[in-house]
## 1
Amino acid sequence: METLWSDFLNSEWHDWKGSGYSEDRLGQEKWQTYYLNQWQLKAQVPVDEETVGVMREFRSRLHDMSVRCVAGGVITAEDVEDLNRILDLGPVKRMVKMEAGELGIGFVPVREDWQQVMAEVAAGFLRSLIDGERGRIRICDNPDCRWVFYDDTRNRTKKYCDDKMCGNLMKVRRFRAKKKQEQNRAPDSKEDK
C-alpha cells in the first residue's frame, strides 16, 4: 500500500528488474505534479534546485529511519529533532469538520509550498509509528527494487511491494536458480552408461 510518506521515499526509483538503473524523480516536474495530485497537496511546480536539495536530505533521513524501523531499531532523539524541524516548516490550523453527522477536528495547511508538503510527509510517517504500525513498514525483498512500503495485509507477511511484479520476478529467479543447482548436481548421463 502506498502512503504519503512511502511514495515520497520511493521518488528515488530503482529498476526492480535488475538492470542497475536508478532515477531520482524528486527533481522531475512530471513526478512533482503526479505527487501533488495523488495526495491532493498544493505547491509550486517545478521546484527550485535549493528546495529539491532540502527535500533530498529529508528523504535520505526519512529513509534511514524507515530502514531502522524495519530492522527493529528505534527512533532516536536526533530523529525526533529532525522530524520536529520539518514539522515546524508546515504550520496547520485546526477546523471543525462534520462527516456523516459526526464532529471531528481537521488540520488545514496554512501554506501551499514544498515545505508544507515535507511537513505532511513527516506527519504521515509519525502517524504510522504512533498508531503502532511500525511493524507494517517494509522494504521490498527484491534486492534490486528497494521500495519502501506499508504492509496492509492482515497477517503482516507481505514481502514484496507488488506481488505481480517483484513477487513474480523473484519467484522466477528462485525457480531458475533451483533448476540450475539441480542441473549442476545431476550426474552426467553419458558417464553413467
## 2
Amino acid sequence: MNDTWLVAGLGNPGPKYAGNRHNVGRMVIDLLSRRAGSSLTSHKARAHVADARLGVLPGGAPGPRVVLAIPGTYMNVSGEPVSALLRFYDIPPERLLVIHDELDLPPSTLRLKRGGGEGGHNGLRSISASTGTRDYVRLRVGIGRPPGRMDAADFVLRDFSPAERPELLVTLEEAADAVEHVVTEGLEKAQLRLHTP
C-alpha cells in the first residue's frame, strides 16, 4: 500500500503570473517545500517536484512522504502533468490533494473537501478529465469575486495588491498547515480543525 500523497498547487508558469490570484496554489507549494527543507526540481512529467516529509505524526515521528508538485503547464492543462505524476509515483487519485484559487469563497477563506464539481475552474476540469475521477481532495483558497463589472478572467490574472499581501501571507501559512493536517491526521480531522470556528 503506497501511503505517499501527491500535493499539487495550481497556477500559471513564469514570472509574469507569479503574483496572480490564480497562482495561490503554487504559492502554498513553495511555502511547503521551504518548510520541508526541500527544493523543487524539474521532472519529466512537465512539473517541478519536491520529495518531502510533511508535518509530524503523533509520537513525534516525521510525517508521511509527500510529493509536492507545481505543474509546468498553464492552468487549463494542469491535468496532464498531475496524472503523469500519479502514474510515475504509483499514487492512487484518492491520495491526490489539489490546492487552487476559489472565486466563490471570500478572500482568505479556506475549505477542504473531497470530490464534487469543478465550479467552472479550468484547472480542476483538466485534472478530473485526465485522471478520470473527481474523487480527489481539494483545498480551496478564497480570493473573492471581482469588484464592479470586472471580468472574472481578468481578476484572477491580477496580482494581489500591496495592501492584500499581509493577509495573503497569513492565509498561505494556514493553507500549508491544512495540507500538513490532511497528510498526518486524515481529511476528516483536518476538516474539523479548519472548518470549526
## 3
Amino acid sequence: MASETGPEDIPARFEAAWNAHDMEAFGRLFHADASFVNRFGTYWRGVDRIVAGHARIHASVYSDSTLANAAPDIDRIGKDAAILHFWSRLSAGQAHPEGPHQVDTIILAVVTRREGEWRIQALENVTLVNPMTGAPVLRDAPLP
C-alpha cells in the first residue's frame, strides 16, 4: 500500500511510535533489511533484531520514557532516497535506574522509498557529550 508520507515525516512517526511504546508501529518505520546503531554503539541488522532490541528496553528501563524529535535537515540524494539529520531528546522516567533525566542525541537516517513507502534503511544515533569530559550534555546547555 502506497504511503502519502515523505522523508520529512519519519522523525514524527519515530517519536509517535516511541511515545506509544508501540513496537509494531516502530517496526513499520524500517525496511526489512535495515540497520540500526544505537547511542551505545550496538549494531542491529534487520527489522526483527531492531524491534527486539527496542522491545526489551521499552518493557524495562524506557517503559515510561518519551522522545521529542526536532524537524529534520533533509538532503535528497535521488527521487527515492534522502539523508535525514534530526535532534532527539529522550526523557527517561522513574523506570530508568538513574531515575528521571534527559539525553540529547543526533540521529542520522538514510531513508528510501520502495513500493511507495518511505522507510529507514540505516540509522545511527549519537549521544551529545562534552568532548573534554565525555559527560552527556543537553544541546541548549552551555558546555562547562
## 4
Amino acid sequence: MSHSVSRHSVGGPVEAGAPGLPASGGALGGASVPSRRRGPTPTARRQRRAAFLFLAPACFMVAVYVVWPIVSTIRLSFFNWDGMTEPTFIGLANYIELLHTPTFYTALKNNLIWLVLFLLAPPMGLGVALYLNQAVAGIRIVKSLFFAPFVLSGVVVGLVFSWFYDPTFGLLAMILGHGVPVLGDPRYATFGIVFAALWPQTAYCMILYLTGLTTLNAEQIEAARMEGAQGWSMLWHVILPQLRPTTFMAIVVTIIGALRSFDLISVMTGGGPFESSTVLAYFMYDQAIKYYRIGYSAAIAVVLFGIMLVYIVYHLRRMLRAEQ
C-alpha cells in the first residue's frame, strides 16, 4: 500500500506506454538520450576531396587572371604612374580629373549609344535563328552564310565596312547615288561603327539561340498546339520562357561587347573625327599607350568595370527573380 502511494505521490504511475513519456525513460526519469550526430561518411569525404581537386585549377586561374588584375587595377587607379618610374600615390586625383574631362562625357555618351543599339542584336539573332531552325533543302548553306561574320576578326569587319562607307567608291555611295562621309562626320561616325558591329554580334546571338532551340521541350510545344497556340502566342508563351537562360546569356554578352568596344573604333575612325566616336575602352587605351598615363587609364578602367557590374547584376537579379 505504501509502495503504490509513493508512486502516485511522485506524479502518477510510470508505465512504458504512458502518454508524454518515452518508453525508454525508465531509470533516467523520462529524459531521452540525444542521438549522436554522425559525421560525413568516407564516401562523402572522398567526393568532396575530388570536387575540390577538380575545381582548384579553375579557381586558381580565375584568381590569377581575373580577381588579381581587377584588384591591381583598382589599386593602380590611386597612383600617378607612367609605366617606367616609381608610382606616386595621389588618392582620388585621377577620378577628379576624369570628371572634369569633356572627352570622358563624350565617351560615356557613345557607350550609352552602343548599349542601346547593341541590344538589337539578341532579338535579331532570335529572328534569324527561328528562320534557320527549319528542315528544308539548302538550309545548311544559309546557316554557314549567317555564321560567317562570327568567325571574322574585328579588324576584317572594320576594313570591310570602311570600304562600304567610302564616299568615293564605296557600295553605300553606289546605292545612294552620292557619297556620304559616314566615318568623317561627327554626327554619323558612332552610328556607322555600331551598325558594323551589329553584323557579327547578331551572328553570335543567332548561334546561342540555335543551340537553345535544340533544348526545347517538344511535349510542351505539342500540348500548346493542341490547345490552339500558334504564331506569336506560341513564341511568347511557350518558346521564349524556355529560352530565358539563353536570352540572359545573349543580353549579358551583348552588354559586355557594347561596353568594351575597341577594335572597330581603332580600325575605322581611331576615336575621331575630333574624338566624337571614342568610347571608354578606347579612351583608356589612348591614355595608356599614347600618353603613358597608366594610373589615369586604370581609373577609366575602374569606371568601365563599375558600369558593367551594375548592368550584369541587374539582369542577373531579374533572371533569378523570374526563376523563383
